[in-house]
Amino acid sequence: MGLDVLVIGGGNAALCAALMAREAGASVMLLESAPREWRGGNSGHTRNLRCMHDAPQDVLVDAYPEEEFWQDLLKVTGGLTDEHLARLAIRHSATCRPWMVKHGVRFQPSLSGALHTARTNAFFMGGGKALVNAYYRSAEKLGVQIHYNAEVDSVELDEGRFVAASVMHKQADGSVRRERIEARTCVLAAGGFESNREWLREAWGQNERGEYPADQFLIRGTRFNQGVLLKHMLEQGADRIGDPTQAHMVAIDARAPLYDGGICTRIDCVSLGVVVNREARRFYDEGEDFWPKRYAIWGRLVAQQPGQVAYSIIDAKAIGRFMPPVFEGTKADSLQELARKLGLDEATFMQTLNDFNAACRERTFDHTALDDCHTEGVSPAKTHWARPLDTAPYYAYAVRPGVTFTYLGLKTDDTTAVRFNDQPSPNLFVAGEMMAGNVLGKGYTAGVGMTIGTAFGRIAGEQAAKAVKAQKQGAAHANA
After folding, report:
1. Can you name the residues that pair with 400 across neighbouring β-strands?
2. pLDDT of residue 113
3. Is residue 395 a contact partner of residue 314, using CB atoms and an 8 Å limit?
4. Per-residue pLDDT for 114 more than 70?
5. What is the mean pLDDT of the chain?
6. What is the mean pLDDT of residues 65-89?
7. Which DSSP symbol is given to 111?
8. Which of 14, 37, 79, 237 has the highest count of CB atoms within 10 angstroms of its CB?
9. Using an 8 Å Cβ cutoff, are 437 and 246 in contact?
10. What is the Rg, in whole angstroms, of the alpha carbon atoms belonging to the chain?
């Protein structure tokens, strides 16, 4: 058996694992299920990495210490997180960027209007696609064997030890060539199951209105994350973590494509106005917290509404204060006209908006701080940035749930080992979306997915190379 480390997956976590293992001297093969032009999974749609830092750095202002990062994560997850693993990822984020730069990743300052993230998030020059391409170039240069159109649908295990992977190589003529690949160690980094409509439908089930909410979900990222390997590992008895209905789920433009709409489909004006459902009623506090911390709750909120659709409503005062969407919104010169254009009940819509406007207690409006512009006497309350919608023209954006990645995954520890009956595998490791549920039980804060993928991808690669070395030393002693 010649191969040291087999990495299954082709996104950020997989690439980090492959690069770390190769740097440690191991021979490495990486299997990406997508064709070359779609390589990188969801990582191609990312923009930044949430970073702990105790002082200003090249592209990061002020400081963002460990405890603040942890408290931000604790708040959005509601405590559904493994503190030890979360802090491990947080500390890792303070030291990984020089390594990333060495492999060709470049950073730039936060764009103006980019979710108030200049202090907390380091942005990739050229976005996630540039990061993915840089890592692939570096991997090729270092001698990592890379195979595209290579889907692993099962692995052979021997009492928790990885033996081999069964690979389907999709050929140009549409045929499939099967191959069994043995390796001394393996890293699983093949993503969640967000692109698998049937699994989403099964997880979410039917609601009290007889609807299958998942039928209306859009997938923000790759179509290739079908969860084949994740399902196989759970069936093989790997310890699981997470709720299959929990995900990084954002309210995105209802006109977005089914797959790969990415960042540009997000609607960022929620906190500047109100959001109503198909019945023309508000259903949640639009001003609960800063958008980077709370934007990823809105997909789930919309998923719970009739028809899994909602409408983000703003007036002219909001223009210029948020990242403009790619698609133009529905525009009207009056709120009544807007209701008619949206097909909403005009009387209910006007009552909702009039009640909201009358409840606004406007102080000094400041969208960069948790200001004191709030509502009184209306439910749900809007706790910050509440201003009457009274200045034409008015705009509305229809939104649907956009799933980024799912949180059901494999339970692990600080070595990233896959566990069976709470016993760590000696040579099978997991990184990225397949284990993100250890840190993200629910909720999300901008950039933390890349923090998790980078931290645990690098640890997995390091641990895999270490396990190879131990195996070879053991074999040498046995033969001595």
Report:
1. 252
2. 52
3. yes
4. no
5. 96
6. 97
7. P
8. 14
9. yes
10. 24
Q: Per-residue confidence at 1, pLDDT binned at 50, 70, 90?
A: low
120, pLDDT greater than 90: yes
Sheet holding 417-420, edge to edge: 145-147, 28-31, 5-8, 185-188, 423-430, 417-420
State the SS3 of 28-61: EEEECCCCHHHCCHHHHHCCEEECCECCCCCCCC
Please give the Cα distance from 441 to 448 (Å, whole number). Answer: 13
**Residue 393, Cβ density class (10 Å: 0-12 exposed, 13-18 middle, ≥19 buried):** middle
Instruction: State pLDDT tens for residues 446-456.
Output: 999 999 999 99
Helices (H) and strands (E) in the chain, counts: 12, 22
Q: Which domains does the chain have, with CATH numbers?
A: 5-192+407-479 (3.50.50.60), 248-402 (3.90.700.10)
Please state the pTM of the whole predicted model: 0.95
Cα–Cα distance measured from residue 76 to residue 93, given in angstroms and rounded to the nearest whole number: 19
How many CB atoms are closer than 10 A to CB 370? 13
- Find tokens 């959001």 and name the residue: 275
